[in-house]
Specification:
The chain is about 40% helix and about 15% strand. The protein is of the alpha/beta class and about 550 residues long. It has two domains: about 350 residues, 2-Layer Sandwich (Nucleotidyltransferase, domain 5), CATH 3.30.420; about 200 residues, DHBP synthase (Alpha-Beta Complex). The strands form six sheets. The chain has an eight-stranded mixed beta sheet, with helices on both faces. Strands 7-6-5-10-11 form a five-stranded mixed beta sheet, with helices on both faces. It has a two-stranded antiparallel ribbon with strand order 1-2. A hairpin with a 4-residue loop joins strand 8 and strand 9. Helix 3 crosses helix 4, helix 3 crosses helix 6 and helix 7 packs across helix 13. The longest helix has 27 residues.
């Protein structure tokens, strides 16, 4: 929900249903938004026009089945079925004629959504915002830039895999678009599948794996997608769309020649080279040096690191919920600006947009668990100082639950698992008892802004949302070793004054160890979305190897059996 350029609230349905990347109708999220806000709804913005989103509304079971295959929950499709699906995708992937797709999306999809919204008491005009326009709006209106070069890249949406736009005084003008049949995001996702990981979920693992390889280059990747600087287009000589068929081709014709690490390195190197060409090309053409990006591909923090370090870039903003989970906010931003002609010229520094709970509500849940003799708890006068003592002096891993829930995929100090960043044994223990990540996937860090330059080099600018990699100073690597990767990079949340309680915790840590930094990973059990409620937090404490929880003003210890 957006009002006059300001975000009132934002939350994804998965936090309510506990189904990761839930694609069902977001009835729970809408109900919460209506209950949490005193504002009246003027319009409802829908971040798609046609395409697969239309099919998902008309045939929701097919979309759920497709995504269950991405998560490897069903039987792998036969080669014949892959070929058939690919033939269908090739016919519709670029959605031409676009006017026909838009008409079908607005009429058929609009009627379906209107009916579901009326059941929730909402009978307002629907405003349809094209998929990549919603991505662009999310990046531009959150960036605070008056003028910006806005780039979107993902697998595909509304017939496109990416766009380039200029944001100027609130207006967004598209200057280029890339067809869905040539997609950087799709290649990266298919390469992830080829390495026996999950499509649209494990791409970060492929990126992490790449750091374990010697430098490698695979020229053949250019035929799947490359940026042609003369035509200014992403081009593909294969046009293969269906992710499973493309992954099978990569596996049979390329991956078998290389080890997984070398293949991952080559794919990472190839896609980031294409993206850097796009960025440099349009900076040169437009002379605009403020860059704002969104779309699922920009969850790739290594590509973002290279953009962040470009001397041509004056300022750089990555929308923190860059994937399709952020489309609703982008559409709301855009519709709000069209209605009121106002946008916030200050860059967003806080995305604590979700539900929060009082100490009284927290204690209700605590009493229930204590009565069942699952936990012991006590109220603490200064929870930040006490938790810092547990982490720094007792070398403990603490689950941390405070304030409004973060929007997006990253824990930013309100729904976090915390421990010392200098102790690699704690990283290994978190992996064993909670996260169950593969050996090659690192954890992130939270760093006080005043300590960032002494820990990171280069340090071109702050990053509040863990959306870009930064190189750790060699002499300080030991201080961040548990929150860094083998390539000596970390994904930091550079913390300013936007979260008072979490900042106080890091200041207390600084008093004890000499600098303000912690390993910070999301508060959730492996395969389940980040916790939202006190009950979620206590369930996770009970059902993992974690022992300690700081929740509101209470410090909780799991009861010994």
């Amino acid at each position: 929900m957006v009002s006059n350029g300001n975000v009132v609230g934002a939350v994804n349905e998965e936090r309510f249903t506990k189904k990761k990347n839930d694609v069902g109708f977001p009835s729970n999220a809408i109900k919460w938004m209506l209950s949490a806000s005193e504002d009246d709804v003027e319009k409802v913005a829908i971040p798609w026009i046609g395409g697969s989103a239309l099919f998902a509304r008309v045939f929701p079971s097919l979309e759920k089945k497709r995504r269950s295959l991405w998560r490897k929950e069903g039987k792998k499709p036969s080669r014949l079925k892959m070929e058939f699906t690919n033939a269908v995708f090739r016919l519709i992937q670029d959605q031409k004629p676009r006017a026909l797709w838009q008409m079908a999306g607005k009429s058929i999809g609009g009627n379906i959504l209107s009916g579901k919204l009326r059941k929730l008491g909402i009978d307002k005009k629907l405003v349809f915002v094209e998929h990549h326009l919603a991505h662009a709006a999310s990046a531009y209106y959150a960036s605070g830039f008056d003028e910006a070069l806005v780039i979107t890249l993902d697998g595909a949406g509304d017939g496109l895999s990416g766009t380039v736009s200029i944001g100027d005084k609130g207006e967004l003008k598209r200057i280029n678009e890339f067809k869905a049949s040539a997609s950087i995001g799709l290649l990266y996702g298919a390469a992830t599948l080829a390495c026996d990981m999950r499509f649209s979920e494990d791409e970060g693992k492929l990126m992490s794996l790449a750091a374990y390889s010697y430098p490698s280059e695979i020229k053949e990747l250019e035929k799947f997608v490359r940026y042609d600087e003369e035509s200014k287009q992403l081009v593909s000589s294969t046009g293969t769309k269906y992710e499973f068929l493309l992954s099978e081709y990569l596996k049979d014709n390329i991956l078998w020649k290389y080890n997984r690490e070398a293949f991952a390195f080559a794919v990472q190197r190839h896609v980031q080279e294409q993206v850097l060409k796009i960025v440099k090309n349009y900076i040169k053409e437009t002379k605009i040096r403020n860059i704002a990006v969104s779309g699922g591909f920009f969850s790739n923090i290594i590509t973002n690191m290279f953009i962040n370090e470009l001397p041509e870039v004056k300022d750089f903003f990555i929308f923190p919920q860059m994937g399709d989970g952020g489309l609703a906010l982008g559409a709301a931003y855009y519709a709000d600006f069209q209605e009121h002609r106002r946008f916030n010229r200050k860059q967003v520094e806080s995305i604590y947009y979700g539900p929060e709970y009082t100490n009284a509500e927290i204690e209700v849940a605590l009493k229930k668990y204590a009565k069942e003799k699952k936990v012991k708890y006590r109220e603490v006068k200064d929870i930040a100082r006490y938790t810092a003592e547990q982490i720094a002096e007792e070398n403990r891993i603490v689950l941390w639950f405070q304030g409004r829930m973060e929007y997006g995929p990253r824990a930013l100090g309100n729904r976090s698992v915390l421990t010392l960043a200098s102790t690699p044994e704690n990283r290994n223990e978190i992996n064993l008892i909670i996260k169950k990540r593969p050996y090659f996937q690192p954890f992130a860090s939270s760093v006080l802004e005043e300590d960032a330059k002494s820990l990171l080099d280069p340090y071109p600018r702050k990053n509040r949302f863990m959306t870009a990699g930064y190189r750790v100073r060699p002499e300080r690597f030991g201080d961040l070793v548990a929150a860094s990767h083998i390539d000596k990079t970390t994904r930091p949340q550079v913390l300013g004054k936007e979260n008072t309680l979490y900042r106080e915790l890091l200041l207390q840590i600084k008093k004890k160890v000499g600098y303000g930094a912690l390993l910070n990973t999301s508060f959730n059990k492996h395969g389940i979305p980040i916790v939202m409620t006190p009950d979620d937090a206590l369930w996770t404490l009970e059902n993992t190897g974690a022992k300690y929880l700081a929740i509101g003003n209470f410090f909780v210890e799991k009861a010994t059996k």
